[in-house]
Design a protein that fits this description.
β1 and β2 form a beta hairpin. With 455 residues, this protein is of the alpha/beta class. It folds into 2 domains: 282 residues, Aminopeptidase; 122 residues, Alpha-Beta Plaits (2-Layer Sandwich), CATH 3.30.70.360. Helices cover 36% and strands 23% of the residues. Strands 1, 2, 3, 6, 7, 9, 16, 17 and 18 form a 9-stranded mixed sheet that branches. The structure holds ligand BES and manganese (II) ion. The site of manganese (II) ion (MN) has 5 residues, from loops. Ligand BES binds next to loops.
Amino acid sequence: MEQVISHVKSNFDTYIEELKDYLRIPSISTLESHKDKMNECAEFVAEKFRNAGLEEVKIFPTEGNPLVYGEWLKKPGQPTVLIYGHYDVQPADPLELWNSSPFEPVIKDGKIFARGANDNKGQNFVYIKSVEAYMKTIGELPVNVKFLFEGEEEIGSDNLEKFIRTQNKLLKCDCILISDTNQYAPNMPTITYGLRGLLYMEVEVTAANRDLHSGSFGGSVANPINELAKIISSLHNKNGKVTIPDFYKNLFPVSKKERDNFKRLKFSDKNYAKDLGVKELQGEKGFSTLERLWIRPTLDCNGIVGGFIEKGAKTVLPSKALAKISMRLVPNQNPEKIAKDFAKHVKNLAPNSVKVDVRKMHHGLPAVAPLDGRGIKAASAALKKAFGKETVYTREGGSIPVIVEFMKQLNAPAILVGFGLDSDDIHSPNEHFWLSNFEKGLYTSIYFFDEYSKT
Ligand code: BES
Ligand code: MN
């Protein structure tokens, strides 16, 4: 093991240079205009797989962005780890708030800054390099591995889910290892066992058939922006509960033991509020902040467009307004059903003077992974070796849509070992990843393969 670790130490600077090349590719999955960048990034990943010593490296085209697969299966009798990552990233805007260009990685104060630095290129690169380090030193791995990286995580993973359903044999494994989450706090090794799901909708309100002079027409027809604002504000009641009928029906109960575990994590509302620059926190009444983040469903408007949005003033009564609204879901909530309930509810809230279109964009299921089993044991032992501390177990408010499909189709547990931090600004300007965590991530991965072969 020590020779693998020292190989990583002496090659660390090259790894960073390679990671920079990975981060230079603007693989933004939600932008139609970036198709060629997605293909370029898939090729890049395939090449890195090959260089690491993985075999049968293949790019699988899908209806959307390609999947990249690679394997090393030369340890019969040892378990197989499926390593999942995503090479797609979120859009970089608003660009003017970045201190350096999002696709020209910069290292500053021990962190690498770029879109995707944490989510997920920095984190998934850890596994490519740790396999490579084994191959270049010992010449083999202690366990079998399969790698599967996708390019559509940030848009719901629909095509990967289809792929998993038809590729049971190819993907057969004993556990699914994923680093796409965060540590509970700096230098606190963390395994995440629950993620919320997501339902993403678009609401378009139309009044008159064209934009109008707001003086000549104002007062005679509905203003779609005003009406959309009313709709949005009716989606919560005064206790912060979502008003969609049946939204909270049959939520999977959360045990007292689990809530007590949350309490032990000693979350400070005060520090959290201070860090975010708000005087006070807000949310559903009657639940602690960690409960509101991890086990309660929420609804948020993610974007709103309408009327004149340039600098200056224009007196216009717009014809249309549009809102992007998403919901974070928890176990037992059914995204398809909630999408229908939401559409009906929004239409009921709107007056006859406007036309409302509600469209579903994508969804992902909430997931809870088991906390027992050999994989979890090996992961926490590996984390302890790499970070020198005991692991904490957390849930997460964000989503990784494909986890449920993986666990269901492959009948294997997902193990979520995050090397990011909540302060890494993922999906936000100045996303970054701590190089110290990249390094400890490499050690964790190296120790994990070893521990997993021994447990
Ligand atoms: N890496 C994140 C999930 C995550 C978010 C982990 C925050 C830890 C903290 C993942 O890439 C992600 O952003 N998922 C999307 C999925 C969605 C677009 C379907 C999300 O949660 O918004
Ligand atoms: Mn993300």
